[in-house]
Design brief:
With about 140 residues, this protein is mainly β. The chain has a domain of about 50 residues. About 10% of the residues lie in helices and about 20% in strands. The protein is built from one helix and six strands, in the order E-E-E-E-H-E-E. It is extended.
């Protein structure tokens, strides 16, 4: 166990301003520090919340991001998201229809260009009326 003590600087942490005993530091340098709180409970606090640089964090009416932060976000997203020409998903999206009479396995398939994410019901014979029930082996339709 280390004899080091650290202060919580993040203004929205419930222990902000508290000086806590370090039990274990993260192995990678990034992550969470295991500390002992004032009543003796062990807890983990993210390393960045223990940095004086996060102390001036405030909630404001207007968001403020530096140009550098936005550029970093752009480059991060570019490495994580596939390019438009790399998308090969040609499967129809399947949506479970929970409002379809409570039937088990009630699903609909939707094409990618359908803005509602659903297709209409299959059209049966002209003039035929469905009961909304399955005609499977356990149904009582007598078919």
């Amino acid at each position: 166990m280390e004899n080091t003590r650290l202060q919580v600087y993040y203004p929205f942490h419930p222990l902000r301003g508290a000086i806590l005993q370090v039990i274990r530091r993260p192995k990678g340098g990034d992550g969470a520090v295991c500390v002992m709180d004032p009543i003796g409970k062990r807890l983990k606090i993210p390393v960045w919340m223990l940095s004086p640089e996060c102390a001036p964090t405030r909630i404001t009416e207007e968001p403020h991001l530096s140009k550098e932060a936005l550029l970093h976000l752009t480059s991060l997203l570019a490495t994580r998201l596939p390019a438009a020409d790399q998308i090969h998903d040609n499967l129809l999206q399947t949506v479970v229809d929970e409002h379809n009479g409570g039937q088990r396995g009630a699903t609909t398939a939707s094409a990618p260009d359908n803005p509602n994410g659903r297709r209409g019901r299959a059209r049966g014979r002209k003039g035929a009326r469905g009961s909304g029930r399955s005609n499977g082996p356990h149904s009582s339709s007598g078919l």
